[in-house]
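Job type: complex structure
Entries:
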Amino acid sequence: MTLGVVVFPGSNCDRDVQWAAQGCLGIETRFLWHEERDLSGLDAVVIPGGFSYGDYLRCGAIARFAPLLQEVAAFAKKGGRVLGICNGFQVLTEMGLLPGALTRNEKLHFICEPTDLRVEPGSCSWLQGYNSGEVVNFPIAHGEGRYQADPELLQSLEDNGQVVLRYVRNPNGSVGDVAGLTNSQGNVLGLMPHPERACDSATGGVDGRRLLASLLG
Amino acid sequence: MPVYSARVLVSLRPSVLDPAGEATRAAASRLGVDGISKLRIGKAVEVELDAPNAQAAREQLELLSDRLLANPVIENWTLELKDDASAGA
């Protein structure tokens, strides 16, 4: 099992993901510089949080065109497991791997706090370690995490069971309290909260461990 | 090749909340400018592009606007293309 961790100029959670996966769970990780194209030998890819390319234009808008992400898109289309955390979720929506968009928080503030989330794992391969309806606590840290989808799209996501993570107390104005989404195949997960910051009891709980531990089968 | 100048205006779709616009509207009233019923913030992108003719320039700029400058899920865009190419200017 080897996990690839994407590194853009401006990524700042790449080492957190490495610590959570390798340090806490013993999953081998490999950093993937944004100009690379080689995903050989990888079982899954994480697009971590941060401010890819300074988040110029829109969050994730420029990252979408990185050479590495052309390969990640092909990897996901073949059923490869892809996880986008925070800025990584924004990138996944810009790439079109997940529908909708993430916009400025309703109250404009950058919000950084522990957040309760209700999990509905459905067919999402990343969340099979959680029970349906279970409430977990992951930190959030974002200024642009308000999920936006028109009512028809939101309804279809609900009907397909793709809204797999929901805020118990909506912090940012996301429609449908959406905190995380999976694609229809269940191999791609995007979420604004940070599971990798909830993997070590010394630094704020271990509710996130099962998400990355899903890679261990 | 002629140089074409364009301006692309990107705005949030009317159905999408613009909290920055709302905050600015609140500040406007503190400044003493009352009566503002709408204030929405977008982006203006100025572009100069080499293209063989206006039609080719327009096609490239439309692709740019739709696929990069704006996210059509949440934003609308309009393109203002200056017809007369100011070659070398």
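Summary: The interface with chain B takes residues 57-58, 61, 65, 93-94, 99-101, 103-108, 146, 148-150, 173 of chain A (CB under 8 Å). Residues 2-216 of chain A form a domain with the Rossmann fold fold (CATH 3.40.50.880).
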